[in-house]
UniProtKB/TrEMBL annotation:
GO terms for cellular component: plasma membrane. Gene3D superfamilies: NAD(P)-binding Rossmann-like Domain, Regulator of K+ conductance, C-terminal domain. Residues 1-117 form the RCK N-terminal domain. Residues 137-219 form the RCK C-terminal domain. InterPro entries: K_uptake_TrkA, NAD(P)-bd_dom_sf, RCK_C, RCK_C_sf, RCK_N, Trk_Ktr_HKT_K-transport. The lineage of its organism: Bacteria, Bacillati, Actinomycetota, Actinomycetes, Micrococcales. Transmembrane segments: none annotated. It holds the Pfam family TrkA_N. Keywords: Ion transport, NAD, Potassium, Potassium transport, Transport. It comes from the Bacteria. One of its GO terms (molecular function) is potassium ion transmembrane transporter activity. This is Trk system potassium uptake protein TrkA.
Length: 224
């Protein structure tokens, strides 16, 4: 896979190193000479230029890339790069960093953004996840589809403790994607049994009923 990353700061370089480790081709773009730490990501291609200019994106062979990542510290730049990549070069997938949560509403398909990554939101979700057992926490939202990745730590009194995954009737537009048990992630099968303390990662469509999902996972059935 060929990836162009706009922004060669610590975030962009970290992403580049991870992608290179997975044998992808990476081009890093930044207009600041101080960001040209080529030795830190020596296997990447580097371009000292303004990623908001068409000439720069053309030089980076954006029309040949599979993904463009707008990872600068400026939300305006990230939006412009995403829009140009999608409208001028037809890049199949754009991923944009959101620096200011107040700007998150703009990072959608109208600006050419397929996936918006908000560090403050992710950190907030991690804090909530760390302290809240039995609460549904939104980890990530796919802006193109509106689907969410949700996390819930199964409490001891959950009605699903001891239940096989294949016996659970999930609400519509809801899929159990993974179970994290201790340090071990599990790809759930119909024969896996849910245990107290399991971290469930769930993909829920935009029309999914979150209240019904919470009741299914947490609320014990009413006494008769």
């Amino acid at each position: 896979m060929r990836v162009v990353i706009a922004g060669a700061g610590s975030v962009g370089r970290s992403i580049a190193n991870e992608l290179l480790t997975a044998d992808h081709e990476v081009t890093l773009i930044d207009k600041q000479p101080s960001a040209m730490r080529v030795a830190s990501v020596a296997e990447a291609e580097w371009l000292l230029a303004d990623a908001c200019e068409l000439a720069t994106l053309t030089a980076a062979k954006t029309d040949e890339c599979d993904v463009i990542v707008a990872a600068t510290g400026d939300d305006k730049v990230n939006l412009v790069v995403s829009l140009l990549a999608k409208t001028e070069y037809g890049v199949p997938r754009t991923v944009a960093r959101v620096n200011n949560p107040k700007n998150e509403w703009m990072f959608d398909e109208a600006w050419g953004v397929d996936v918006a990554v908000s560090t403050p939101r992710i950190m907030t979700a991690m804090v909530e996840e760390a302290v809240a057992v039995g609460d549904l926490v939104r980890i990530f939202t796919f802006h193109q589809s509106g689907a969410d990745i949700l996390e819930l730590t199964l409490p001891e009194d959950s009605p699903l403790v001891g239940t096989r995954v294949g016996q659970v009737v999930w609400p519509p537009d809801t899929v159990l994607a993974a179970i994290v048990r201790g340090p071990r992630p599990i790809a759930p099968s119909v024969d896996d049994t849910l245990e107290a303390g399991d971290e469930l990662l769930i993909v829920a469509g935009s029309e999914a009923d979150r209240d019904a999902l919470h009741d299914l996972l947490v609320r014990p059935p009413a006494a008769t």
